[in-house]
Amino acid sequence: NAGVTQTPKFRILKIGQSMTLQCTQDMNHNYMYWYRQDPGMGLKLIYYSVGAGITDKGEVPNGYNVSRSTTEDFPLRLELAAPSQTSVYFCASSRDSPLHFGNGTRLTVT
Amino acid sequence: QKEVEQNSGPLSVPEGAIASLNCTYSDRGSQSFFWYRQYSGKSPELIMSIYSNGDKEDGRFTAQLNKASQYVSLLIRDSQPSDSATYLCAVQSSGSARQLTFGSGTQLTVLP
Cβ contact (<8 Å) for B104 and A41? Predict the structure, then answer.
């Protein structure tokens, strides 16, 4: 039982490049979330999903896209990377509460 | 815009003292409240959850909730250097997606 697994752990992107942050969970949780955390700040919700095929925007969705084709996977897509997207990204899942977090992806855009 | 506010810190306490962390929230319909601990470079880990008014104790940790005042607090008794971390208050929305809104965190340092 691995919990929530995020890949990669670290990534450096050039401005304008695209990438996908992977997130998978093996707990059969319906709810999945993507948060970003800037230095010294709390977590801001980017997108969330209440089940396979259903996604919705959170507080800071601009510049990101998501899909949820299976219960297990919830990838986050950055299409045109910008320096403002430099952050630590956390994926989380839950059945009811509380959230179970992955170990995070540290992304730098230069 | 649902908001969660925490005292800005940083907070320093001597070893063995009580650390008091505070949080207020704006969504009066919120039902579930959580405290997460986050060590530097790590992901948040849940240390306390509270759902009804009053106090909830778990070992050295006590969470206090006052829904009328929209106030949540965390007390850490007999603080240890290993408690040095950032503490995040999180509030679960009254909507169906159960997403959490987080405060910006309070950095706690316990001095040996």
Answer: yes
pLDDT in tens, B15-56: 999 999 999 999 888 889 999 999 999 999 999 999 999 999
Question: What gap in Å lies between CA B40 and CA B21, rounded to an integer?
Answer: 18
Q: What is the tally of helices (H) and strands (E) in chain B?
A: 0, 11
Each residue's pLDDT tens digit, A72-107:
999 999 989 999 999 999 999 998 778 899 999 999
Q: Are B7 and B22 in contact (CB under 8 A)?
A: yes
Which helix (H) or strand (E) covers residue A65, if one does? strand A64-66
Helix (H, G, I), strand (E, B) or coil at B110: strand
Which residue matches tokens 């510049």?
Answer: A63
Stretch 79-108 of chain B: residues touching chain A, C-beta under 8 Å? 88, 90, 92, 96-105
Cα(B3)–Cα(B26) distance, integer angstroms? 5
Cross-chain residue pair B43–A31, CB shorter than 8 Å: no
B32-38 and B85-92 strand pairing = antiparallel
User: Chain B contact for A45, CB < 8 A?
Assistant: yes
User: Taking Cα atoms as reference points, which of A77, A81, A95 lies closest to residue A4?
Assistant: A95
Report in angstroms the alpha-carbon separations of B92 from A28, B2, B3, B68, B84: 21, 10, 11, 16, 25
